[in-house]
Design a protein that fits this description.
Blueprint: H1 3-10, E1 26-32, H2 35-41, H3 44-50, E2 55-61, H4 63-76, E3 83-86, H5 90-96, H6 117-122, E4 124-125, E5 128-129, E6 132-137, E7 139-144, H7 145-150, H8 161-171, H9 192-202, H10 219-235, H11 245-253, E8 259-263, H12 267-270, E9 281-285, E10 299-304, H13 312-323, H14 325-335, H15 346-349, H16 352-355, H17 360-369, H18 393-408, H19 414-431
Parallel strand pairs: 1-2, 1-3
Antiparallel strand pairs: 3-10, 4-5, 6-10, 7-8, 7-9
């Protein structure tokens, strides 16, 4: 068993795999239950009309469950899925393992050169594009302009964490179920640890020093966790340790959050038809501490084909449909330009109609400001902004996420959580051979 395989399987529970081969014209697509993917399923009439010979079956899962199932399936060659929704973390690791099908033979009209360089680069290994981006994102501040105005405050375009704390205090009125700030607390390497790792970069923290020694015992991580816990305990909603992306989105749409710092892709949903505060939302860059790094991440939810698929050609046809320029135009025609999947194509950001969307510029500025090759204030041996691009991180990030979520729930102090994280990560890195 390879080190990569052992690390990945160590991060996830084995699940029963279906051994049944799929018919050639049936493909199974595994995806996350985020709004843009749900919207895609509602537009399948277009795909079905163009490709009546391909039947698509959907497996739509909560983020942590999707990752667990897809990781197990691909690492064991289970062949359960023909198209998988994965991210910027998995693609380089799985591509190097030979677990993904190259997409270099997508048709010329796909225009792979139109993909944003930062996004395309993260999905390419040794010259092979191993996944096509469905949407790309960074993170930013979404805030209630009306509540800021009522508090006599103005949100800077590039706020500091001190600005965020001041605004959160001014906007909180718990008697009205109005909370100054909503942030991820739900455990998971792609849930609370995506937020906290990106946040820690702006505090000068890092997961590892240049020699792969864990850094949770350093003052920068203590400053990060102390600030986060205080912010959430003072000005956040109750039960925040259970809240991930979708839970906070619902709270914001219901008018219960003064601010939400999260994925730029949420902008169309907080300003959309399901939002009770759609006309009151402003946007700002993710906060910093004046150290040269902002607390924003870089991610792309992308579609890839496992090498174990027995319907690769049909899967490629589907990926082409779901991630090409025509799909963006389809969404625009049905739902308006504000609801087009963002952050994947240069041409979208030169489109005059899309330029009118209030969050378009803030989204692309946020994406362009994240640097996976130099994510932290101090030097590090790894690539990745809100994750560390090593196979072990999926397990490490989830375990540390559980520790920090427990601290948010009041089950342990910040100091206890950091000491526990330091011990756990050190033991794992020793076992994996990174340190002595």
């Amino acid at each position: 068993m390879t080190t990569t395989l052992r690390a990945l399987l160590g991060a996830t529970a084995l699940v029963a795999l279906s051994g049944a081969a799929m018919a050639e014209t049936t493909i199974t697509v595994a995806t996350v239950n985020n709004g843009d993917m749900v919207r895609m399923q509602g537009l399948m009439d277009d795909f079905n009309a163009k490709h009546p010979d391909i039947k698509v079956e959907w497996v739509t899962l909560e983020e942590n469950v999707l990752r667990q199932n897809v990781t197990t399936d691909i690492a064991t060659g289970g062949g359960q899925y023909d198209v998988i929704t994965i991210g910027t973390y998995e693609v380089p690791i799985w591509g190097k393992q030979g677990w993904l099908e190259s997409l270099n033979d997508l048709p010329a009209e796909y225009d792979v050169d139109d993909l944003l360089p930062a996004i395309r680069g993260g999905l390419t290994v040794d010259g092979n594009l191993y996944a096509a981006p469905f949407y790309g994102e960074s993170s930013m501040v979404m805030y209630r302009k009306d509540l800021m105005e009522a508090a006599g405050l103005t949100m800077p375009d590039a706020p500091t964490w001190a600005d965020i704390e001041k605004a959160a205090a001014a906007m909180t009125d718990k008697s009205k179920e109005q909370y100054g700030v909503c942030l991820r607390g739900k455990a998971g390497w792609g849930e609370n640890m995506a937020f906290l790792t990106a946040m820690s970069n702006s505090f000068g923290a890092r997961w590892f020093d240049e020699n792969w020694v864990p850094q949770f015992d350093q003052p920068e991580w203590k400053a990060t966790l102390d600030f986060y816990l205080n912010l959430m305990n003072q000005y956040g909603p109750p039960g925040a340790s259970n809240n991930g992306f979708n839970e906070n989105l619902t709270l914001f749409q219901q008018g219960k959050c003064g601010m939400w710092i999260d994925a730029t892709v949420a902008a169309s949903f907080v300003t959309g038809k399901d939002s009770t505060v759609a006309d009151k939302v402003g946007f700002a860059l993710a906060p910093d501490n004046g150290l040269g790094k902002r607390g924003n991440w870089l991610w792309a939810w992308s579609l890839a084909i496992p090498s174990s698929s027995d319907a690769k050609d049909a899967a490629k046809v589907f990926i082409d449909w779901a991630t090409n320029k025509d799909y963006l135009a389809l969404v625009a025609s049905k739902e308006g330009w504000a609801n087009v999947p963002p952050g994947t194509r240069t041409s979208l950001y030169s489109n005059e109609e899309y330029a009118k969307v209030p969050f378009a510029k803030m989204t692309i500025d946020s994406i362009n400001s994240a640097d996976p090759n130099a994510p932290t204030v101090k030097p590090v041996p790894y690539v990745g902004v809100q994750f560390v691009a090593i196979p072990e991180f999926q397990g490490l990030g989830t375990s540390v996420g559980e520790i920090f979520s427990a601290a948010l729930a009041g089950q342990k102090t910040a100091d206890e959580a950091l000491a526990e994280a330091q011990t756990l990560v050190t033991d794992e890195m020793k076992a994996a051979g990174y340190i002595q």
